[in-house]
Amino acid sequence: MTTTSRKPSNSDAEQRSADESRDARRKKWLRRLPLLPALIFTIVVTQLPFLFSLWYSLTDWKIVPPEPRTFTGLNNYIEGYTNEFFLDAVIVSVIMTVSAVLLSLLLGLAVAMLLDREFRGRGILRTLMITPFLIMPVVAGLVWSTQMFNSTFGVLNWIITSLGFDAIPFVERFPLASIVVVLVWQWAPFMMLIMLAGLQGQPLDILEAARVDGATPTQIFRNLTLPLLRPYMELGILLGSIYLIQVFDHIEVITGGGPGSTNVPFFVFQRSIGGGWDFGQASAYAVIVVIASIIIATFALRLLSGLIESEATS
Asked: How far apart are CA 104 and CA 8, in angstroms?
């Protein structure tokens, strides 16, 4: 008596593959299950208020004087293109963000180049250099407005008067520049950390070969170091732009939103709980800021993922 073994049919293989796929999906969701409460909390805290703001931006909602909330469609967004004060706030936001990010990047790169070498006390000096970035924005604004920019007893004017010149009311005369100086002081350490990470990833054998071939430090920096640092510089610019486009604390503490220093977030504050009480229009302006931040964040995440992939393959 002979027995014959049955070969697995295609249907059996497909069923087994489907079962394995279901098991893999179930295990994946089981691993994610502990994170579900945090995800729900994040959605409730962040996305629901945004949806309410989106709805309010489509209405004409004023509290003072009290008026019924009516649906107006895109009128608030259209009015933003004709509102002179809002357009001025947009210009201030662009100037403030671009100048603060670029100056922070250049200063951070210069400091990173100085720290990218062996010397005694380098670790302590690095720690001290990142201290401004760890200070709360309100504290940084208070320190600079009262102890540095003050016309009577500020450090800068003490130096100026010691040299025989008249004191300069920095905040009153140069409100936007004063805010940019504080932002650069706080964000240059952040850029320094990013640039230092890129500098320490340089291939030492290639740099040594360039020195042996007679390349000058300027040529090495321009032809080898700068191309290597380009992804890090782009990442620093994008991350800095995401945060600095939303600056509020420094403006409130240093200038109080005076002429020439009101950016879009502060303008939204002024149009809402800051005295304007026009929540419909303020919500429309806030949505515009959120959309701009999302666009910048999307580019930042794509750049960061590309940088991680390039590091993994190298």
From this structure: 66
Q: What's the pLDDT tens digit per position in 180-193?
A: 999 999 999 999 99
Contact assessment for residue 241 and residue 101, using Cβ atoms and an 8 Å cutoff: yes
What CATH number has the domain bearing residue 222? 1.10.3720.10
The number of folded domains in the chain is 1
pLDDT tens digits, 117-151: 777 877 788 888 888 888 888 999 999 998 899 88
Q: Is residue 55 part of a domain?
A: no
Does a structural domain hold residue 201?
yes
DSSP string, 37-61: HHHHHHIIIIIHHHHHHHHHTTEE-
Q: Which residues contact 178 (CB under 8 A, 6 or more apart)?
A: 144, 145, 149, 170, 171, 254, 255
Is 4 contained in some domain?
no
